[in-house]
Amino acid sequence: MNLNHFLKADREKAERLFISTRDLISELPAAIEEHDFEGCVEISATIISNCKDLQRMEHPEQVVQLREIVSNLASRGINVSTVRRVYQ
After folding, report:
1. What is the spatial distance between Cα 53 and Cα 47, in angstroms, rounded to a whole number?
2. pLDDT score at 86
């Protein structure tokens, strides 16, 4: 999965959702084989919910815009290093 399409603040959550969804998808065939159709519905609903969350979190155009802005500022000689706040 390419996490570069997610804002930095969302990448950890996106990765967890992706792994959770992948694991749920792998559980689905066993539930079907066992005729656990109620379980299949629950698994499928969770997969759908996770995918909708991932879709909402994905912002490739914003990430590209931020990179373009930073590159433009850096080419003008402006320091674009990350500033971190120190909390006391």
Report:
1. 10
2. 60
Q: Count up the domains in the chain and report the number.
A: 1
SS (H, E, C) 12-80: HHHHHHHHHHHHHHHHHHHHHHCCCHHHHHHHHHHHHHHHHHHHHHECHHHHHHHHHHHHHHHHCCCCC
User: From CA 10, how far away is CA 54, in angstroms rounded?
Assistant: 10
Query: Would residue 60 count as lying in a domain?
Result: yes
64: containing domain: 10-74
Give the distance from CA 73 to its chain's centroid: 27
- The answer to whether 38 touches 44, Cβ cutoff 8 Å, is no
Q: What's the whole-model pTM score?
A: 0.66
